[in-house]
Write the structure tokens for this entry.
Amino acid sequence: MSDSETLRAENEKLKEQVRSLQKEVAEVRETSQKYLENVAHQLTAPLGAIKWSIEALKDEKVPVVKKQQLLRSVYGQATILVHLIKNFALMSNLEADLELGQFREKPEPIDAMRLAINLANDFQPQAHDAEKKILVENSTFERATLGKRLLMEKNLVAQALSNLLENAVKYADDGTEILVTAEKKPTEVRVSVTSVGIRVSNDEKGTLTTRGFRGKAARQRVPAGTGIGLYLADRVMRLHQGTIEIATVAKRSTFSLVFPSGRLV
């Protein structure tokens, strides 16, 4: 091959690489645009619901019973809003923490049962509106911890568990119970959220913690969503040298935050 032919071949190769790069950039831009639009929708929905409820509360003709329902709705929507904002705020911080291999805040011993109860209470109004109930099985926490506490960065684990609860409330069937339990094994302690609702296929289990991924059944039931809840929970657990485990039987799903047993102190 002559020098000119070699040069032409190299130029064609370079052009192909440029075209490939341009295609990737276009895809990233499109994905980012869709993500931002989704985020805006996710934030607008609870804000709109809160505004509507407050307007109704100002109406003197609305009966007291209805106003109680509206107040519960305001609390529930505000919980969703705060939850979403915390998720978005955690995105960059968690990536930085993982790169450093350490926490920004110092972990401390936390009562896992009390944390679960407080978070369940936050999501109870939202669950109530869909005729669902969140139950924290205290006895399982007592057996799992034996009076000890879990060493954790509280705000991060609270957000991870909130993400599991929010998903359960969102995707569980109406009229069902959402169970929050704990279990101690020789090498681990797990805090789990179990619900009955959409089916999670075996093919999807391995990708549920991928950033932006949402299962087919989840998209069908709730079209809008960011797909970052389980992704962030997975990142939180990695910082705690733990994992997220997903177990499903038919429509029953259990999502577990799994900590090394050495974190019981």
Q: What stands out?
A: The beta strands are 108-110, 133-136, 150-152, 177-185, 188-196, 243-249, 252-260.
